[in-house]
Amino acid sequence: MMETLMVAMVFMVVLVVALGFYFKFSSQNVEEAGENACIVSNTVMLSSIASMPEIQCSVNGKREQCIDTSKLMVFDASQEYTEFFTSNCKQKVYFTQVYPEPENVEEVCVQGAYPDCAVYPYFDPRVEYISSVVISTPVSLYYPLTDEYRFGRLFVEILQ
Amino acid sequence: MKKGQTEIIGFMVIILLLFFSLIFYFRFASDDDSDFLAEAEENLEVSNFLTVMKQYTLCEDSSLGDAIKSCASGGGFICAEDSCALVKRDVAALAAANGWSEDEYMFFIGEELYSPNTCAGNSLADDYSTASIEIRLVYCY
Questions:
Q1: Which end is more exposed in chain A, N or C (fewer Cβ atoms within 10 Å of the end residue's Cβ)?
Q2: Distance, CA of B40 to CA of B37 (rounded, Å)
């Protein structure tokens, strides 16, 4: 009788410890899954941002697969898309000119610096963050003043 | 050793085996997801890079897409230069700007290679047709 009780007790202790480890491990997995879901949704976003009508090139109403930099200069995404960019996880979005390489690769494009600049901020939630994961994709940047297409990149910086 | 002690060891071994097999299962299950995501990102990269290449302006009224088309049609002059030479030079320049080394990609017009090297291993490709000839960009990783 005593032996059976001892076995049951030890079994319970081992089970509780194992369950404790299991739940700790599963909660880590849930966190990782959350971060992954965020990266997946932002990877999809890489495609959808480049197709936003407010910044996409269009000739006579026909859309082209490029970003019109003159539209980027005047469109304020924080007015229209705050919910879109912050509903799942917070991210910073910006475009950079890659080639031809700009003279100053960190020069932010503002009125006066355009078009001889490198970085076009698109959305910034202006929140503090500890680290970030950056994903990016090539985009074609169109300069209507010179009717020129240059090589750029769209960056989505996922803030953590 | 008493019967009870043997049973305890038996239970512990079973529970530990179950626990570690669960850990391994979840670990490998999550690895599959990240592979899929990385491949989706690379696919998008190759597809968008080919679009950028087609549109890239070489000189007034001429794009790299025009040079590719001219080269695919048998050659000619774009921006006062031989179109095939332009394609070779500017595809390499754009790929380098994108951070690709010479053995990470291949660019074909029809069956002819217009990039400095061939590449091997896993690959992703995207293509389009111009002048009835297939233009193909292959990225190796």
A1: N
A2: 5
